[in-house]
Write a structure and sequence with these properties.
Helix content is about 70%, strand content about 0%. It is mainly α.
Length: about 325
């Protein structure tokens, strides 16, 4: 599976970098005006999130034991929690620390809402409860909803008809969004994106889906994505699938950006955003603000590097200590 892993690295690198550039370059309306060419171009960087959703559909199925059953649900969720929660909590502490320092400098009131913190840790903010401390946190709630669903359904998908039924469900559930959302941010509208990744996994790693099934159901899912969202979502979905299917190489830069992708995703708004907000007091010309963006982007990368070493890498190590049932592959 070395070829697929290489494609995963590229997707992670592109997605995290795109989201980072989007937030830093386009997130502050005082940095550049709306007519700026690069601002218009980078405004599509938010679609990196959709790349992550497709990738999760594939990679989570890939790391699960092939004989995954009900007994493995608990260790699977424990592994995901240990993998995600420590860096996630550390990033929340980082938000509060920088807000406290801002309070000391500006005198602005930044009281901590412990209820809101609990809602974050339990991934309940997606249900229209509380506000997000960091604009990227909403996606973690979506991811955790996916973990629960795949843990419940993966043991059942062991025959071709079950795979097809599952994919059909991923087609149908977005239509429930109008009736069930009520302002909630749930996995429902994004089911087709995760479905693309799941479908690719079964096409590559089992005999349950042949090439005809794969082409037909991938096409149906892409049509679903187009009508549920827009042309941009369709194009980035096709782009992600092309990488998954055909990318076969790697270099040190791609590997590095892939390695720190989650840490960069968690911290770039907090670190880079603060730098830009502070720098706007001193960088007044358009040319100097390009330089300010480069400073914020570079520092965000460097900070993510150390954040990965201190928080994320140990979390990965600890999560792997949780074992599945005997005779299961890790």
């Amino acid at each position: 599976m070395q070829q697929e892993i290489k494609s995963v690295h590229l997707i992670r690198a592109i997605a995290s970098t795109a989201v980072c550039i989007f937030h830093l370059f386009c997130g502050n309306n005082r940095l550049f005006d709306s007519n700026n060419f690069f601002k218009k171009t980078f405004s599509y960087g938010y679609l990196g999130v959709e790349m992550f959703f497709i990738l999760s559909g594939f990679i989570i199925c890939y790391v699960l034991p092939k004989n995954f059953n009900i007994e493995d649900i608990s260790p699977f969720l424990k592994r995901r929690l240990l993998r995600i929660e420590p860096p996630y909590i550390a990033s929340i502490v980082l938000v509060f620390t920088l807000n406290y320092l801002s309070h000391q400098l500006t005198g602005l009131d930044n009281k901590i809402s412990w209820i809101n913190v609990f809602l974050h840790l339990a991934y309940l903010n997606n249900f229209n409860l509380g506000t997000y401390l960091n604009p990227v946190y909403w996606t973690l709630g979506i991811e955790f909803q996916f973990y629960i669903l795949i843990a419940l359904f993966f043991p059942l998908i062991k025959k071709t008809k079950h795979v097809i039924i599952f994919i059909l469900l991923s087609l149908a559930v977005p239509y429930l969004n109008t009736y069930l959302s009520a302002g909630y941010i749930t996995i429902i509208p994004y089911a087709s994106l995760f479905g693309l990744g799941i479908l690719f996994y079964y096409y590559q790693n089992s005999q349950l889906i042949n090439s005809n099934h794969y082409i037909v159901f991938t096409t149906i899912l892409l049509i679903q994505i187009y009508y549920s969202f827009n042309t941009q979502y369709l194009l980035v979905s096709i782009f992600t699938l092309l990488i998954l299917n055909f990318w076969r190489s790697e270099n040190k830069i791609i590997g590095y950006l892939s390695k720190i992708s989650f840490s960069l995703y968690l911290t770039h708004v907090t670190i880079g955003g603060k730098i830009i907000n502070l720098g706007l007091r001193f960088f007044h010309t358009e040319l100097s603000r390009y330089f300010l963006f480069l400073i914020a982007f570079t520092v965000s990368i460097l900070f993510a590097h150390f954040f990965y070493l201190i928080f994320e890498k140990p979390a990965i190590k600890f999560s792997k200590k949780i074992k599945y049932a005997p005779n299961q592959a890790a």
